Q: What sequence folds into this?
């Protein structure tokens, strides 16, 4: 309900208009019982047709006005949620794009998918009809008061029925929240398994994993069905309670009312009118329970989204260097991940002068990719500094730094869009001649020429359907578009044929001529021979820095020995 209050008071003027419309909607709802009472008491009693015409005309006007106010209120309730829904969508998108890579990488993909869909479920919970149902709740007193004017005893019976309905709704809400939380976790686990089965489709087939997959699938589906059936049973129980309360209320009102009619304390018209009024009061309470349950679940979803939005973000502020020469330094750098027994590496100190090439060597799991991500600013050290021309990366504007550095990851990923849109992410204004030259340089032209739409060919599924060679070439093309000073390559020739490797060499040679500083994870002999220095991550916990001698001169890329 806090979210509803926030939405209502986000625009106090609109909220006031909605409350006013709700008042008229409920006030005009009194026309029906009044019409019944008057018809039965006055027209049937006296038979004057003028009374019938007047009452019928008045009822028709009340119905038209009531429908008009209801439509107006629905539109205003819908307008009430437009801005908050847009803000939530934008906040989730901004978080997905801005949360630090290290924090985002610890969240399972299935959970991220659930979070990305959360705005839609919240939007459904705060649709116009549910907001109206909550706002109608205070007006049950209006129908209760009208019933009281007819018969205090019948009003008391109605009040007891409404209280029972609210208590039952509160109990159902508590049970439903607990069941929903468990169901959500089970659903995330099942979605994670499905994602792994889709991503590892070849593994499922080649290793005859269908039996294992089937067993796990059946267990998870059985669990989900059990939870779903429990939720359905709970909903059925709640509906049965509501129907029973409605039936009991009618029985009680007519039983007690009939006695009052016999005693002469109530007319037949008043009895029927009181029955309509009491039913309306109970209906308002029932509608409130349903809307409140949906909003409460949405509140739990918003809490989950709030925890996600609170994760650390990349800095949106910072400075930019007027002239960046391309110098990069690691100064006493250490990094460790949550839950690890110790740092991945520590006390790393190495200086990369502009235009030098430093290689990163080490066995699997020694931190090669982690070091590459430190260089581009995706990760931050737990100790020490990464410096660009002597300035800590944490003091620089992230957007500016990303315009100075390109990253060719081991497993390139792309956005759903065209080849052109993916290649030009760093520079949307690149001219066509330059773009065609880049395509030729990375040996992507032949592939694009085979497509009737060329650069406007769509990239789907984040590029997962493309071959390794095409993905690597596309990543190289993307790297060449920017005016880079730093280039970071992570196993650039892995999985490539001779032509693909030649494209990588061409790009790296071009960068070398442009005096771009390069940090390279590779054991490719053709690339290794170009290293000026090597960071050996096999040396634990302090990496060993080796300076490569060329033509009898030490390269100026790095300090020798251990950092």
A:
């Amino acid at each position: 309900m806090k979210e509803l209050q926030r939405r209502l008071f986000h625009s106090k003027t609109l909220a006031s208009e909605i409350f006013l419309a709700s008042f008229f909607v409920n006030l005009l709802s009194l026309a029906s019982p009044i019409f019944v009472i008057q018809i039965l008491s006055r027209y049937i009693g006296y038979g004057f047709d003028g009374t019938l015409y007047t009452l019928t005309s008045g009822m028709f006007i009340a119905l038209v006005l009531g429908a008009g106010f209801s439509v107006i209120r629905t539109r205003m309730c819908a307008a009430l949620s437009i801005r908050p829904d847009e803000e939530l969508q934008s906040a989730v998108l901004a978080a997905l794009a801005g949360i630090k890579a290290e924090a985002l990488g610890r969240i399972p993909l299935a959970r991220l998918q659930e979070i990305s869909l959360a705005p839609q479920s919240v939007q459904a919970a705060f649709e116009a009809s549910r907001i109206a149902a909550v706002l109608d709740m205070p007006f049950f007193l209006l129908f209760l008061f009208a019933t009281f004017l007819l018969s205090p005893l019948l009003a008391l019976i109605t009040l007891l029925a409404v209280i029972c309905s609210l208590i039952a709704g509160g109990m159902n809400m508590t049970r439903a929240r607990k069941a929903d939380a468990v169901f959500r976790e089970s659903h995330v686990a099942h979605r994670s398994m499905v994602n792994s089965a889709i991503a590892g489709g070849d593994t499922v087939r080649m290793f005859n994993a269908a039996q294992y997959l089937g067993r796990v699938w059946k267990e998870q589906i059985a669990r989900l069905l059990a939870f779903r059936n429990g939720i359905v049973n709970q909903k059925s129980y709640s509906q049965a309670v509501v129907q029973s309360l409605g039936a009991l209320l009618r029985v009680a009102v007519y039983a007690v009312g009939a006695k009052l009619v016999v005693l002469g304390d109530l007319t037949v018209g008043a009895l029927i009118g009181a029955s309509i009024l009491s039913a309306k009061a109970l209906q308002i309470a029932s509608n409130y329970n349903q809307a409140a349950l949906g909003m409460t679940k949405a509140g739990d979803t918003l809490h989950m989204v709030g925890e996600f939005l609170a994760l650390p973000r990349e800095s949106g502020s910072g400075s930019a260097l007027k002239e960046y020469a391309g110098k990069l330094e690691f100064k006493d750098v250490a990094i460790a991940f949550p839950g690890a027994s110790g740092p991945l590496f520590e006390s790393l100190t190495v200086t990369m002068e502009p235009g030098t090439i430093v290689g990163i060597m080490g066995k699997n799991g020694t931190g090669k990719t982690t070091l590459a991500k430190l260089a581009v600013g995706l990760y931050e050290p737990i100790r020490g500094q990464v410096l660009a021309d002597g300035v800590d990366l944490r003091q620089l504007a992230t957007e500016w730094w990303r315009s100075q550095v390109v990253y060719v990851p081991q497993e390139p990923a792309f956005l759903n869009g065209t080849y052109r849109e993916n290649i030009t992410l760093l520079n949307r204004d690149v001219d066509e001649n330059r773009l065609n030259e880049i395509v030729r340089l990375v040996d992507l032209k032949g592939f694009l020429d085979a497509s009737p739409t060329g650069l406007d060919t769509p990239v789907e599924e984040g590029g997962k359907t493309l071959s390794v060679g095409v993905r690597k070439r596309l990543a190289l093309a993307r790297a060449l578009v920017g005016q880079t000073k730093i280039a970071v390559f992570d196993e650039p020739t892995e999985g490539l044929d001779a032509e693909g490797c030649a494209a990588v060499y061409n790009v790296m040679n071009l960068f070398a001529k442009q005096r771009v500083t390069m940090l390279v994870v590779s054991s490719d002999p053709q690339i290794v021979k170009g290293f000026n220095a090597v960071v050996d991550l096999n040396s634990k916990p302090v990496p060993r820095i080796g300076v490569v001698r060329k033509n009898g001169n030490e390269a100026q890329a790095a300090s020798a020995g251990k950092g």
